Amino acid sequence: AGVKDDTFKVLDLAEYTKNRPWWRKVFAPSSGSSAEKYNVATQLLIGGVTGWCTGFIFQKVGKLAATAVGGGFFLLQIANHTGYIKVDWKLVERDVNKAKQQLKFHSSGNKMSPEVKSKVDEVIIFLKKNVILTGGFAGGFLLGMAS
After folding, report:
1. How many CB atoms lie within 10 A of CB 80?
2. Which pLDDT score is estimated for 19?
3. How many CB atoms within 10 Å of residue 129?
4. What is the spatial distance between Cα 113 and Cα 107, in angstroms, rounded to a whole number?
């Protein structure tokens, strides 16, 4: 009756870590997707606020970039018209046609590299697990772009 059982269970770490995402290994077992941790209202609020901020910044940067590109093109046209610079339009046309051919060549294959495909798959899995958060972000982004 006084015999002690000294048997131990062997834990295979390779098998254990295969079934656990990297963020759970780094942070904690309770750090899963936001759907596991927050209620619907909180997910919508977090997604909406971050989406609005992203959309607002995207809109401002987009306007600045469009103004810079348009202004630069306008200044180049004025400089060309007044004779400060001379544009070789045949060379420009040849380079544009070469770029078009390269774009057609790259888009005709329509094959992604394995690294890009795996990242795309990870993003799709994240979006599927966090549909409410993603929806809030999309709505907030559109509102941020409109404001």
Report:
1. 13
2. 65
3. 14
4. 13
